[in-house]
């Protein structure tokens, strides 16, 4: 093997691949199983967008808190939430991450700094500001990260959070995952200021746009904005321009997309395929090693689904547990 | 009556100046509406000398929308100070590829001048694809060593004078050098500088980690420039018109021949060690001495290489023409072109009337 030209160690390159591939397999499996009618509620899949979650989360530790979106599975996996507990949660089973009472859009694991996926658009931003304020007051060096989509970035909560972060100088990063569509509405039509960098500037924080399908571009850029926040340099906004391979939700007919649009993305802008090509061509990791990881992940996802199906639903007695908090 | 053919193209790509230098330094972020206002000021300047139609690059970033709104509002008020704007028929990718494609199409459409909003990177993209059409640069980028800082109304006036055929080429245009990179079968150009850095990935593209700097080639280098060329400019400046460039090899500060503080990006002044700084003569390929790394063209990493790629850099003179706004305006003033509304006098007509 030759020397490593990348900014990550070989172990971390393998970790990044494993994270992205786990997300892809998890989502592609849900895509199939949801169509069978086995899964309650809605699922919104993250396939195609993995480089964003992996490139950002590689810089975080359990002290750092993230607030996710309705499309949160990828963020959960990259932040270290247990895959089996996630699958059970999506199946609504008592072995799930939230005992089966949250479902796809409310997976949380505070021990991993994952404050939750969120069915309310833009609602993660003030939570991330709160986590950042707590980190600043406690002085433990943690940061908050808020993920929103291009659609939710128009929500008042998100815009108020940009202002709050700027005036309180919070250690927070606002990640706008711009996949081009708010459900079925094109970003070109629905975002008046046209550029998220412009929008951040309007609130007094720097913004940067990055190709969210390029793991290394996300990794390096995220490293700088996260370091800036961690060292007291203040908040910033990171726009990841990306692509979702599936519809807004499962069952979406996607009539708003151009013919062949997704095929072109899958062929040329697949972040995992491109990552794999680069690390193997550089001679840092052999294709066989990655194939072995692929097999492990396939087994993990199979086992997750089998265990989720076999697990019991929450009982009637669970109805009020974990719902109310005693102070 | 047939519509007048567009004689001027305008390229304003909204994806320029959005990279990491806004976070690691304090690089400017010219907002979309500001960029649209710049286009409107250019258009107002262009119309003065009879330019009726202008070709613009399509984009989805909002510039054209704001420009068209401005034109509509002016028309509603009966204000005829803007030319009509046509949009090139091309798919939009929202990447730098749009800039290259638009430059190529404008060349094919036979425009006399392409006005470019951007910094060194955007100008590089246009120069690589415009087929020799002269460029009038408006500085709106991150590093702006190549385009000059100037009020766009004046750039529009000068471009209009040129497109109307009112000024001879030897007055209107400056000849510029560029650097050619050869890397295996790949050929690239840079208008200002080619930097070789140790990082062997493209990643966030910008370069700012001075400990990774290995070599630098510059076509020109001024002491008051921003960006990598400033390093050469502060050691041994070389002008745009001189028939040579510079080649620098970086080295550890502890044992370097030159240790200087240089503004390598907006707001980012770093101490760098330079082991040697020599002349780069035209048309002689200069092999890159580093075995592996990545290459930044006009400030952004574009390509990685290993020793099997055998990259080399060649300085070319007379490679690309730019509009000399100051000389054009001076010529126009001396000829009295601004003194009358009867402005459709060609250079030849003017000469026959005894003007000089």
List keywords for this structure.
heterodimer; A: 327 residues; alpha/beta; Rossmann fold; two-stranded antiparallel sheet; 12 helices; globular; B: 356 residues; alpha+beta; Alpha/beta knot; seven-stranded antiparallel sheet; five-stranded parallel sheet; 10 helices
SSE layout and pairing:
The complex is a heterodimer of chains A (327) and B (356).
Chain A: H1 10-35, H2 50-57, E1 65-67, H3 73-79, H4 83-90, H5 124-138, E2 144-149, H6 156-168, E3 172-178, E4 181-182, E5 185-186, H7 187-190, H8 196-202, E6 207-211, H9 215-230, E7 236-241, H10 261-268, H11 271-281, H12 287-310
Parallel strand pairs in A: 1-2, 2-3, 3-7, 6-7
Antiparallel strand pairs in A: 4-5
Helix pairs in contact in A: 1-2, 1-3, 1-11, 1-12, 2-3, 2-9, 4-12, 5-6
Chain B: E1 8-12, H1 21-24, H2 32-47, E2 53-56, H3 63-76, E3 84-87, H4 96-108, E4 113-118, H5 120-129, E5 135-139, H6 152-163, H7 169-172, E6 173-183, E7 186-190, E8 193-197, E9 213-218, H8 229-236, E10 245-250, E11 258-265, E12 268-280, E13 286-287, E14 293-297, E15 300-305, E16 312-323, H9 325-334, H10 347-352
Parallel strand pairs in B: 1-2, 1-4, 2-3, 4-5
Antiparallel strand pairs in B: 6-7, 6-16, 8-9, 8-14, 9-10, 10-12, 11-12, 13-16, 14-15
Helix pairs in contact in B: 2-3, 2-6, 4-5, 6-9
Sum this structure up briefly.
Chain A is α/β, with parallel strands linked by helices.
Commentary on this structure:
- The complex is a heterodimer of chains A (327) and B (356).
- Chain A is 45% helix and 9% strand.
- Chain A has 327 residues and is an alpha/beta fold.
- Chain A has a single domain, classed as 3-Layer(aba) Sandwich (Rossmann fold), CATH 3.40.50.970.
- In chain A, the strands form 2 sheets. A 5-stranded parallel β-sheet of chain A has the order 1-2-3-7-6, sandwiched between helices.
- In chain A, strand 4 (181-182) and strand 5 (185-186) form a beta hairpin.
- By secondary structure, chain B is α+β, with helices and mostly antiparallel strands.
- In chain B, 27% of the residues lie in helices and 29% in strands.
- Chain B is built from 10 helices and 16 strands.
- In chain B, the strands form 3 sheets. Chain B has a 7-stranded antiparallel β-sheet with strand order 11-12-10-9-8-14-15. A 5-stranded parallel β-sheet of chain B has the order 3-2-1-4-5, with helices on both faces. A 4-stranded antiparallel β-sheet of chain B has the order 7-6-16-13.
- In chain B, strand 2 (53-56), helix 3 and strand 3 (84-87) form a beta-alpha-beta unit.
- The two termini of chain B are 35 Å apart.
- The A-B interface holds A 5-7, 188, 193-195, 197-198, 201, 206-210, 216-217, 219-221, 224-225, 228, 236, 239, 241, 278, 282 and B 14-15, 18-20, 22-24, 26, 29, 31-32, 60-63, 65, 94, 199-205, 292, 304.
């Amino acid at each position: 093997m030759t020397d490593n030209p990348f900014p990550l160690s070989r172990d971390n390159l393998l970790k990044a691949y494993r994270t992205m591939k786990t997300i892809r397999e998890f989502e592609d499996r849900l895509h199939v199983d949801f169509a069978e009618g086995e899964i309650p509620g809605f699922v919104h899949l993250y396939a195609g967008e993995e480089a964003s979650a992996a490139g950002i989360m590689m810089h975080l530790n359990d002290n750092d808190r993230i607030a996710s979106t309705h499309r949160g599975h990828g963020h959960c996996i990259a932040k270290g939430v247990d895959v089996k507990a996630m699958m059970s949660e999506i199946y609504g089973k008592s072995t799930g991450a939230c005992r089966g009472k949250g479902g796809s859009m409310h997976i949380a694991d505070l021990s991993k700094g994952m404050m939750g996926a969120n069915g309310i658009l833009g609602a993660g931003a003030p939570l991330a500001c709160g986590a950042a304020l707590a980190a600043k007051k406690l002085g433990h060096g943690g940061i908050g990260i808020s993920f929103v989509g291009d659609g939710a970035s128009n929500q008042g909560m998100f815009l108020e959070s940009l202002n709050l972060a700027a005036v309180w100088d919070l250690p927070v990063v606002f990640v706008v995952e711009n996949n081009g569509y708010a459900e079925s509405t094109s970003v070109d039509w629905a975002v008046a200021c046209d550029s998220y960098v412009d929008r951040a500037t309007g609130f007094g924080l720097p913004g940067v746009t990055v190709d969210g399908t390029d793991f290394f571009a996300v990794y390096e850029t995220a490293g700088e904005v996260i370091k800036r926040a961690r060292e007291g340099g203040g908040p910033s906004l990171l726009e990841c321009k990306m692509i979702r391979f599936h519809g807004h939700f499962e069952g979406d007919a996607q009539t708003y997309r151009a013919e062949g649009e997704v095929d072109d993305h899958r062929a040329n802008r697949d972040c995992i395929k491109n990552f794999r090509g680069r690390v193997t061509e550089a001679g840092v990791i052999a294709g066989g090693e990655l194939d072995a990881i692929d097999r492990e992940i396939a087994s993990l996802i199979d086992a997750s689904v089998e265990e989720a199906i076999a697990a019991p639903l929450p009982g009637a007695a669970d109805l009020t547990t974990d719902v109310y908090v005693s102070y | 009556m047939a519509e007048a053919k567009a004689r001027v193209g305008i390229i304003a790509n909204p994806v320029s100046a959005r990279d990491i230098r806004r976070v690691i330094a304090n690089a400017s972020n010219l907002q979309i509406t500001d960029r649209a206002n710049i286009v409107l000021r250019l258009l107002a300047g262009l119309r003065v000398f009879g330019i009726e139609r202008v070709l613009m690059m399509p984009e989805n970033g909002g510039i054209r929308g704001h420009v068209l709104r401005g034109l509509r509002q002016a028309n509603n008020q009966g204000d005829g100070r803007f030319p009509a704007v046509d949009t090139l028929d091309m798919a939009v990718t929202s990447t730098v590829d749009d800039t290259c494609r638009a430059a190529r199409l404008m060349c094919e459409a036979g425009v006399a001048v392409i006005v470019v909003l951007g910094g060194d990177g955007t100008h590089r993209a246009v120069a690589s694809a415009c087929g020799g059409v002269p460029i009038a640069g408006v500085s709106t980028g991150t590093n702006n060593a190549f385009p000059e800082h100037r009020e766009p109304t004046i750039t529009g006036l000068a471009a209009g004078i040129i497109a109307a055929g009112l000024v001879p080429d030897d007055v209107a245009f400056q000849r510029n050098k560029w650097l050619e990179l050869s890397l295996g079968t790949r050929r690239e150009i840079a208008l200002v500088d080619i930097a070789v850095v140790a990082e062997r990935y493209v990643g966030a593209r910008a370069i700012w980690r001075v400990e990774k700097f290995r070599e630098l080639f510059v076509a020109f280098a001024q002491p008051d420039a921003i960006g990598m060329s400033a390093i050469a400019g502060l050691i041994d400046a070389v002008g745009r018109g001189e028939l040579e460039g510079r080649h620098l090899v970086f080295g550890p500060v502890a044992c370097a021949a030159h240790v200087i503080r240089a503004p390598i990006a907006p707001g980012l002044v770093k101490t760098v060690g330079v082991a040697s700084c020599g002349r780069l003569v035209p048309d002689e390929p200069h092999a890159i001495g580093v075995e592996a790394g990545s290459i930044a063209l006009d400030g952004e990493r574009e390509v990685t290489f290993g020793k099997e790629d055998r990259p080399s850099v060649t300085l070319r003179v007379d490679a690309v023409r730019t509009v000399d706004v100051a000389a054009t305006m001076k010529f126009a003033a001396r000829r009295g072109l601004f003194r009358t509304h009867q402005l459709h006098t060609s250079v030849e007509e003017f000469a026959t009337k005894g003007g000089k």
